[in-house]
Amino acid sequence: MRFESLKPQVVALLSKQEQTLTEKLTAICELLRQSIDYYNWVGFYFKNADKEELKLRAFAGEPTEHTIIPFGKGICGQVAVSNQNFVVPDVKAQDNYIACSIDVKAEVVIPLFFDGENIGQIDIDSHSIDPFTEQDEDFLTFVNQSVAQIINKNDF
Ligand code: SME
After folding, report:
1. What global pTM score does this model have?
2. Probe ligand 1: pick from 45, 62, 73, 75, max atoms within 8 Å of CB?
C-alpha cells in the first residue's frame, strides 16, 4: 500500500534537524505530489497569528494567488471553523469554493490540531473527479498528526 510506505518518509522529512518548519512542510508537499498521481497541488495553510484568516505556509504545484483565506471562505475557510475533514468529490457542486485553477476538479482539506486546537490544515487539489477515499483521509490525518508532534507555539 503506497500510503504505508509514505508514512516513514514523512516522519523522516520532519526529523531533519537542520531544516526550518517551512522547509520540512515544503518537502512533504513535494513528496506527496510526486508520489500520488491524483495529488496535483498540495499545501499547508496555518492560522495567521491572531487574525481570523489562514495563511499559506508551504506548497507544491502551481503558485496560487490565494495565500490568505478568511475564516469561513472557501473549502479551507470552512474547515478552519468546522474542525472537520472536508472531502469535495466535485468542486462544481460547491457554492462556497475558491477556485485556484480551472483544472481542479476535486479537493480534500484535513484540519491540523495542536494541543486540541485547529491551527491549520493540509489541502489537496486534484485534476481527477472524485479521487479521494477514506484511505486518503486517514493518511492525511497521519501527516497532520506527525507535523503536530514537531511544532511548537512559536511556529504559528
Ligand atoms: N480551493 C480552496 C482554496 C485554496 S486552493 O485550492 C489552493 C478553497 O476553496 O478554500
Report:
1. 0.97
2. 75
